[in-house]
Amino acid sequence: MFLETLCLRHVGWSLRREFIFSRNWVRRSQVIDTMKEWKEIHWTDAPGYMPLLTEKIQFFSTCCKKLPKQLKDSDAYLELKKEIDDFIEILPLLEELSKKSIMPRHWKQVEEITGKSFNVENEMLRLQTLTDAGLLQFKDDIVDICDSADKQLIIEEKLSDIEHAWKQTSFDFGTWKTRDYPCVLQGGRVAEIQEALEESQMSLNTMNAMRHVAPFKERVVNMLTTLSDVSDTIDSWTKVQVLWTSLEPVFTGGDIAKQMPAEAKRFHGIDKDWTTIMSKAAETATVVECCQNELLKQLLPVLHGGLESCQKSLESYLEGKRNKFPRFYFVSNPVLLKILSQGSDADSVQEDFEKLFDAISRVVFDKEDRKKIVKIKTVAGSAEEVVTLSAPLKVEGNIEDWLKGLEVQMQRSIRRDCKYAAHETALVGSQLSLRDFCDRYIAQ
User: Fold this and answer.
1) What is the pLDDT of residues 175-203, one digit of tens each?
2) Where does the pLDDT of residue 82 fall: very low under 50, low under 70, confident under 90, or very high at 90 and above?
3) Taking every annotated instance into account, which residue ranges of this chain make up the domain Dynein heavy chain linker (predicted)?
4) CATH code for the domain of 433
5) What DSSP string runs through 179-194?
6) pTM score > 0.85 for this model?
7) Residue 137: closest CA among 115, 158, 170
8) Which end of the chain has less neighbouring CB within 10 Å, N or C?
9) Which residues pair with 378 in a beta bridge?
10) Neighbour-count burial of 117, counting CB atoms closer than 10 A to its CB (0-12 exposed, 13-18 middle, 19+ buried)
11) 30 falls within a domain
12) Where are the beta strands (DSSP E) in 121-272?
């Protein structure tokens, strides 16, 4: 038998059986046998072998090229070289088809192109079935399929990441004032969720416009629809929460609730529904599940409408108060609501006097009757001025009424002190020094 030999310097490869070494020479027939063994590899195991196959076939090719020149014209050499070259040519295609991005749908495309059937899920399918299938005739088409599969895998992984993230993302709930149970969404967390929603929707819109999105089109569109609905629900939810938190202290106690009994009753019903949906939402917590709750989606528009009605009634009420006491225009609605809700307790309004009057920081009550204001005081740094009212003011009735009375008494008292000061100006210089005169009367 004619035996050609290949020079192999460092062979560390073994598959089922080792090559036989002898002074770094190995028989041609052994190379052929090795390649036959490769073709017997099960296709399901092929991905793990690809790096080794690539390394060894290149090694065989190099050794083949280094054979003596006189052997290169022989049929045995040409047969061996063709066997090696053919394997080198098809190996990259096999490597592409063995990647994890290749799914059954891609094999169907390959089958349609080649006109052959490949049952790749069959554990008995071997590498030789593919090497003998004439895949090289359709190389460009198969490469396009594999390239598309890689891009589809990227899309699928990003889509799966988004789906997984929104299954885990949750709201943070907080208590409100004296209520020790979940009543409100934590604002900072809501802002983070809304930002994440925008980012996810942008990513999904980008995917939806890609040419390779077809296998996941329905999933992408469904996720886009879900996140869009979630975003709309959160917007409605936060709007209702803003209204509820602003109206809750007004209609659950204080003087305003007593003066607006119809609105207070309406708010009580809204408050009951609000605490119900917040309690159920806190039990669920996850964003998507919360926002897809039918009770929440049905109640939010109703609650928003009811709260807006209460808000409009309250604004009309405040406008009426401002008309009666125009100095209320100097303060914002929240401050005015605070003043009005505490109107029956003048002492609780102390810190708000300077917002209504330029020169009244606080008032002084009669020691025996805490319902009587006897003095007004202005403070500037460490200095203060006190004016005794010309007549004590009784704190009773609506707050705008006794504040109007305070304004009148302030003006009368200042005019009185100005009149006294005018009479004493004739004494300045002869009986009274200018400094004593200035110290005796208020700066005005």
Assistant:
1) 998 899 999 999 999 999 999 999 999 99
2) confident
3) 22-419
4) 3.20.180.20
5) EEEEEEE-HHHHHHHH
6) no
7) 115
8) N
9) 385
10) exposed
11) yes
12) 173-176, 179-185
Q: Counting beta carbons within 10 angstroms of the beta carbon of residue 430, is it exposed (0 to 12), middle (13 to 18) or buried (19 or more)?
A: exposed
Amino acid identity of residue 1, one-letter, is M
CB-based contact 240:184 (threshold 8 Å): no
Burial 2-13 (b: 16+ CB within 10 A, else e): eebbbebeebee
- Cβ-contact 296, 281 below 8 angstroms: yes
Per the structure, the complete domain to which residue 391 belongs is given by 344-440
Residues 211 and 313 in one domain: yes
Rounded to the nearest angstrom, the gap between the alpha carbon of residue 92 and the centroid of all alpha carbons in its chain is: 43
Are both 225 and 257 inside the same structural domain? yes
In 3D space, the residue among 40, 47, 20 whose CA is nearest the CA of residue 31 turns out to be 20
Q: DSSP letter at 350? A: G
**Tokens read off for 324:** 């009666």
285 with 390, same domain? no
User: What φ, ψ does residue 253 adopt, rounded to 5°?
Assistant: 170, 170
Residue 131, amino acid: T
Dihedral pair phi/psi, residue 172, rounded to 5°: -110, 130
- The answer to whether 26 and 9 have CB atoms below 8 angstroms apart is no
Q: How many CB atoms lie within 10 A of CB 176?
A: 17
How far is it, in rounded angstroms, from Cα 182 to Cα 175? 5
Which pairing describes strands 14-15 and 17-18: parallel, antiparallel, or unpaired? antiparallel
Nearest to 272 by CA among 254, 248, 289: 248
**Helices 217-251 & 187-208, crossing angle to 10 degrees?**
160
Strand bridging mode 25-27 / 5-7: antiparallel
The answer to whether 30 and 20 have CB atoms below 8 angstroms apart is yes
Examine the domain organization and report whether 301 and 390 are in the same domain: no
Place of tokens 């073994």: 14
pLDDT digits (tens, 9 = 90+) for 206-252: 999 999 999 999 999 999 999 999 999 999 999 999 999 989 988 88
